[in-house]
Amino acid sequence: MKAKVLIATYYWPPSGGPGVQRYLKFAKYLPAFDIEPIILTVKNPTYPIQDPTLKEEIPDNLKIYKTRTIEPFGIYAGLSGEKAESIKPTIELEGETFRSSIGSWIRANVFIPDARAGWLITARLKAEDLVRDFNIQTVITTGPPHSVHFIGKHLRQKQNIRWLADFRDPWSQVYYNQILPRTSIAEQVDEKLEKSILSKADEVIVVSNSQAESFRKIVERGYRVITNGFDPDDFKGINPPDRTSKGTLIRHIGNIGEAAVPEAFLRAVKSVSDTINLTVEFIGDNHPGLQKLIHKYKLHKIVSIKDYLPHKIAIQKMSDANILLLSIPDVEDIQHHIPGKLFEYIGTGRPILMLGPENGDSAKIIKQEDAGIACGFNDFESIKKAIITLSEHKAHGISADQMVSHKYSRITLTKNLAALIVENSDE
Length: 427
Description:
Blueprint: E1 3-8, H1 18-29, E2 35-42, E3 63-67, H2 73-80, H3 98-109, H4 120-134, E4 138-143, H5 149-159, E5 162-167, H6 184-200, E6 203-206, H7 209-216, E7 224-225, E8 248-253, H8 263-272, E9 278-283, H9 288-296, E10 303-306, H10 311-320, E11 323-327, H11 341-348, E12 352-355, H12 361-368, E13 372-375, H13 380-391, H14 400-405, H15 410-422
Parallel strand pairs: 1-2, 1-4, 2-3, 4-5, 5-6, 6-7, 8-9, 8-11, 9-10, 11-12, 12-13
Helix pairs in contact: 2-3, 4-5, 8-13
């Protein structure tokens, strides 16, 4: 191998969800570009979602090192009335009870930048050893949790290693901070830490152009955009959709948080249900408000909620649907938000119905790819019209060759990352 790169990531299989897949896929394909990835992750994490099947995708010869962490989720869980494993780093609710309200306040104002920072104690020491033992010249830190970036900052200061800070989501400007009960002091401390990372990293990688623009308002510098994508291998062996049954099946795959519960969409479903043979499924970790709205609009016969599924099965469920639903949280300054599943939606060739900013990055991608229709989150009439239009849509597929060379292919995106890793290096 011409170069070695240390990748520090909290999320790693058996963690589930979109956050883990970005660097699992990069680690898979980097060797094809003469770069050897070395993984540093957590030995005793608390993952809110687990998908053991993702462990099967870890390359056999990949070097993986783990260190223990100290996390305050036991205390927080006790206050919120939940198990530590079920606490989500992106928890949004202030809480329906006094106890859970206290827990959310602590999450917002004490765990800064996040409740995963206890990992830094052991991770920084292990990272130093790995840099020396393997003569590593470049480190990538990926967040959230954004406390991981302080591993890179530490190595940059102590060993003068080249450091790439990768942001899968914003930091201080992330949408759920608009919902959490944050104090002005907490906001100031968080923003100061954020600036220290953005200003010191050799390169800052973001997943969208709008995210880069948002960060430029905090620290003016150059930003590298490497989006998320889909892995062509994930679509191998996917059974063709069963088209023998009549009707239109709409599926949402992934989590629905409080701010993304799509009431206007459910109203539209109710409105067209007399004229279209319609079925809707929400598969994933969904906010209780979704079930309440299904009950409110008497949609339980055609709208159902199902549990989180392993990634491979989720891909099959996407491919089986007639329409794929994408619900962007209905909060301010969310134009930059591109859910990772959007790219896998595109990979299926199924038409997409997006709810969210019509001038946002997700909407632009859908338009550029001719992949569906973007509607305002609360635009009942547009959503209703889109359901009718897409129910008559004949999906187009993407060939295996097209998937490999596609600009959102994990292979293409890894090539872009590899070029950045060796840029200005001594290798």
